[in-house]
Design brief:
It is a single chain. This protein is α+β, with helices and mostly antiparallel strands and 672 residues long. Among the domains are: 108 residues, 2-Layer Sandwich (Beta-Lactamase); 125 residues, Beta-Lactamase; 237 residues, Phosphatase 2c, domain 1, CATH 3.60.40. It has 19 helices and 27 strands. The strands form five sheets. A six-stranded antiparallel β-sheet has the order 16-17-27-26-22-23. Strands 18, 19, 20, 21, 24 and 25 form a six-stranded mixed β-sheet that branches. Strands 2-1-5-4-3 form a five-stranded antiparallel β-sheet. A hairpin with a 5-residue loop joins strand 9 and strand 10. Helix 5 runs parallel beside helix 10 and helix 16 packs across helix 17.
Length: 672
Amino acid sequence: MGDNEMSLEEERLDLALKASNEGILDWDLQSGEMYYSNRLLGFLGYGRFGAPNIIEEPEKHVHPEDRARFTRKLNRVLHRGGKLFADEARIRTNSGDWKWFRVRALPLRNEEGILMRLVGSLIDISKRRFAEKALAEERKMIDLILDRVPINVYFKDKDSRFMRANRSTARRMGAGTIANLIGKTDHDFFEKEHADFSRARELEIMKEGIGQEEKLEHEIWGDGHDSWSLVTKKVWRGLNGELLGTFGLTHDVTELVETERNLEQIAEKLRVVNQEISEERHLLRLVIDNIPVFVYFKDLDSNFVLVNQRMSDLIGAKSPDEAVGKNDSHFFGKKLVQESIRDERKIMTTGKPVVKKLEEISWKDEHISWAVSSKYPWYLPDGTLRGIFGVSADVTKLVETKQQLEKIAKILGRQNDALEEQLGLAREIQQAALPSVIPSISCRESGGTADFHHRHQPASHLAGDFFEVIPLGEGKAGFFVCDVMGHGVRSALIVSMLRGLLEKQGETFGDQPGAFLEGLNDGLSHLLERTSQLIFATAIYGYVNLERGELKIASAGHPTPIVSRNGVIEILELGSEAQGPGLGMVPEFEFSEMCLSLESLDGIWIFTDGLFEVLDGDGQEFGVAKICEALQSGDRNIDAIDRVVNAAVNFAAEKVFEDDLCVLGIDFGRRA
């Protein structure tokens, strides 16, 4: 090929790379030479010469928070025969700045299997990562609001079943938790006549496309007591306009109606904001713009960062965006401005909120109004102080008469005390749900015994791993170990859903592991069918029958258990018949089970992946093989689970578990 032809090929390649927005790298491991395309050099800020080998020396070029994962994945390709290296990490550019890149590379090996070259591509994904961070921050703001305002917020599907709600709604309906509310309708809580009326109204709203705003409704509950609420209901549509159901905002005004029936309803037309980022953000923005209170966020300099539509209308801005970057001095009188700055500086310094403060609002035109305001410190997800956020309600008409002011203050005080008490109770219930002592079981007829041992260690305050042991009569018990994908609030919610399904399954299918998992899978799939993100859980359920001397077991995508047979530790071969996909992944999947004889079985250990995925300083996993070694050998005076956990901790580079840990062991024996 001539020089002109070669130049043409190079030009075509360069144009193709520019069109794909990716840079190419080619590392010759035999010569040590690294080739970068012009596009990649541009990403990193280097010229044709002098660019370092970022793959060979991650300790110099990869961000410390990403380095262990990056190195672990690279070692799988370089030293363990991996077929693809793929990761997203922050890499230092020539200017010293960190940028996010997606790196993908294929290993090229010779006929003897020796790695000759690593060829791949690199693309700048910094904008996407920054957008994800901004989205997380906005979600955090919305969660802060919904957790503190005494407004019931909920979404229903086309059959009027609750699909989403805040905790205030679950408590008011008497469901206790959000998980207990999901899937139910008004007929589960209200007297039939009122529930029928509510259903008919929602059908009309979905048909006509016209909602109702702050309509005063008289509610008759199932136990006979009544209440009054201001109810806002509107059509719930997805981003592409499809009808999903209705959403509503309910404010209990029973005591206000009883003391002053003629109190003028305060309502403004709610605006629906079209969002084009995600369905979840679309729903949350609808909520914040339709809450009948004033909501605002301020930065460290007390400048507005976000206001809802009602706050925008109050200050006379053309839109919520027009208020961004401005402060109280643009709208209010000097007295209020000075007092607000003093309160907000104190909140940001001490971290203590100002709750239910009655404020005299002085305006630029010198007229006066009144508001009840609560202000809280605003923290980013990483704990950094961002500023403050506030929730205010106009109480001007209430302040005009002393009697109305005293009654409203008393009502707000009782509501806040009840809210604080219920929040404390919820935290205690979450801790009490974890079993602390598990009774052993035995069979008088066969003489068989089964002793349960466990270790449960969350990686954070809210765990995605949990276990249960279900007594099913003399010498019989079911045991369940589960690992929900991810961590934090989302995983804890799925755990709550599964716990709600466990009791019913244990009563019906406690001795049938396959049917037990089918019920959990169908229930979880139904609860998650409206969720836009992939959520699933792995689990194992087993049934011990000492009278028959057998153990039945079924798995839903969970790590394989380890057993001891006549003193020999081995990985249990479940076989394809006893294994299925994770819970929530494939609706209506038929799970099967296998049966083991207890005659030669000394014990069994079921665990989550947090036990064997710990890494040492070189990025190597602890692995299942080392679990078997720890069980087989070691100090027999130490409990088997303690031996394994201690071995894993000593192996880990940071000497801690970064993931949730859950281990359940059963020792089988016979009594004389």
